[in-house]
């Protein structure tokens, strides 16, 4: 029932559970929006993210992906939650080659195997799948890679994303997210990539964490590259996605399975959420209709209180919050804040011709000197005898970020 809304799915799921059905499966979002027959292989066990959030909009994905038909497409971070879903949807887009780039051998193996199995069962078109193991931080390798792949479009999802972990490893966050993106931008410009779509986050808005600062810098790097060559650069920003690896939903599920407690930082903390499939469909749509140098925001709806999410998840597993599964409040961790914003005070959203895609403009143009910033960051991430005592120096890194980025 591809047209079934969330409320009806909740009701139907409850009826089936009460009737003691043990195996309840559902077609993922991709099957609801691609104009083709759904396949049995695409079904999976229903989980909480299918019952949460709003009703996804219907996107004619084949029409939206006409700009990649017959093209070579590179997805960085292809083994991650966003990257792998982009690959699933791109499989039906008619790309001639789909390059799956990541530095994790197992995750790339898994998405490559899954896409090939989908193809065997008749899902999608006959794109050539090319798994690529590599590290964006390796400047020479990325340049070599782009020179040989001849990619027409790049979807850049690769990043270190775990906020508290990156607070403990700030140089790694900057090295991977910023220097890696710099390498990819420069090689894309050099080797004729026609369209570069960068995935950003609400953590980049007036950032208070190293991760957020790294993504803020990446936004500016990509936008500032719009006039550097023939490549069209687009940034797409959105909040959290339900069920992504490292997100709170899998963590809550693990805590519930071992009997609790479920840990939440604060009873009133809120976050924006969207399902992975909807986010990726809108990213792909924006990648085709976005203008060079454009910053776009996906309409995330209203923020969700994490406590409410935890309580729904506990009940989903058949327990009662507090009485059977305890909820503990552990306080904000380093780099976290109570509420995330999708826009800074200097940004103005405007409607586009496409549902749930907003264009962001600034009241005052940014004056960040990207070249100077990168010049200061490089000796922290790369050993350089001309700058003794700078390599991996966290204090110097924080000083630089506070001068260029940190807003609070």
What does this structure look like?
It is globular, with a radius of gyration of 21 Å. It is 40% helix and 17% strand. It has one domain (45-323, 331-362): 3-Layer(aba) Sandwich (Rossmann fold). The protein contains 15 helices and 17 strands. A nine-stranded mixed sheet has the order 5-4-3-6-7-8-13-17-16, sandwiched between helices. With 408 residues, it is of the alpha/beta class. Helix 7 packs parallel to helix 9. The longest helix is centred in the middle third of the chain and has 21 residues, at 170-190. The model has no long low-confidence stretch (mean pLDDT 89).
Number of domains: 1
Structural class: alpha/beta
Question: Which CATH C-level class is it?
Answer: Alpha Beta
Cα separation of the termini: 48 Å
Which architecture does the CATH hierarchy give at level 2?
3-Layer(aba) Sandwich
Overall geometry comes to globular
- Quote the CATH topology: Rossmann fold
Strand coverage percent: 15-25%
Fourth CATH level, the homologous superfamily? NAD(P)-binding Rossmann-like Domain
The spatial strand order of the largest sheet comes to 5-4-3-6-7-8-13-17-16
Secondary structure: number of strands: 17
Radius of gyration: 21 Å
**Average of pLDDT:** 89
What ranges have pLDDT less than 50 throughout 5 or more consecutive residues?
Answer: none
Largest sheet: 9 strands, mixed
Helix content: 25-40%
What is the count of DSSP helices, taking H or I runs of 4+ residues? 15
């Amino acid at each position: 029932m591809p047209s079934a809304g969330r409320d009806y799915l909740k009701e139907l799921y409850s009826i089936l559970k009460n009737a003691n059905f043990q195996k309840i499966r559902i077609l993922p979002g991709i099957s609801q929006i691609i104009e083709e027959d759904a396949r049995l292989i695409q079904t999976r066990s229903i989980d909480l993210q299918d019952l949460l959030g709003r009703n996804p909009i219907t996107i004619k994905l084949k029409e939206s992906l006409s700009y990649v038909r017959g093209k070579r497409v590179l997805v960085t971070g292809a083994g991650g939650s966003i990257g792998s879903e982009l690959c699933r949807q791109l499989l039906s887009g008619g790309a001639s080659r789909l390059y799956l780039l990541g530095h994790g051998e197992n995750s790339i193996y898994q998405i490559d195997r899954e896409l090939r199995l989908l193809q065997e069962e008749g899902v999608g078109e006959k794109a050539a799948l090319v798994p690529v193991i590599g590290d964006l931080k390796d400047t020479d390798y990325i340049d070599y890679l782009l020179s040989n792949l001849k990619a027409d479009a790049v979807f850049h999802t690769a990043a270190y994303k775990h906020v508290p972990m990156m607070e403990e490893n700030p140089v790694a966050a900057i090295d991977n997210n910023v220097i890696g993106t710099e390498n990819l931008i420069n090689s894309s410009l050099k080797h004729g990539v026609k369209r570069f779509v960068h995935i950003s986050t609400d953590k980049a808005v007036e950032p208070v964490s190293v991760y957020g600062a790294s993504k803020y810098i990446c936004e500016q790097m990509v936008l500032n590259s719009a006039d550097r060559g023939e490549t069209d650069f687009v940034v797409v920003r959105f909040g959290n996605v339900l069920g992504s690896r490292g997100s709170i939903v899998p963590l809550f599920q693990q805590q519930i399975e071992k009997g609790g407690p479920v840990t939440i930082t604060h009873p009133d903390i809120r976050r924006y959420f969207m399902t992975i499939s909807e986010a990726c469909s809108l990213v792909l749509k924006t990648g085709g209709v976005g203008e060079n140098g454009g910053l776009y925001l996906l309409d995330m709806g209203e923020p969700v209180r994490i406590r409410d999410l935890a309580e729904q998840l506990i009940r989903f597993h058949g327990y009662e919050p507090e009485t059977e599964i305890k909820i503990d409040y552990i306080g904000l961790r380093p780099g976290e804040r109570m509420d995330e914003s999708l826009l800074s005070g200097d940004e103005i959203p405007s409607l586009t011709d496409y549902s749930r895609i907003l264009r962001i403009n600034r009241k005052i143009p940014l004056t960040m000197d990207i070249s100077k910033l990168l010049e200061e960051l490089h000796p922290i991430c790369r050993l350089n005898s001309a700058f003794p005592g700078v390599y991996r120096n966290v204090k110097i890194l924080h000083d630089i970020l506070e001068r260029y980025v940190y807003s609070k």
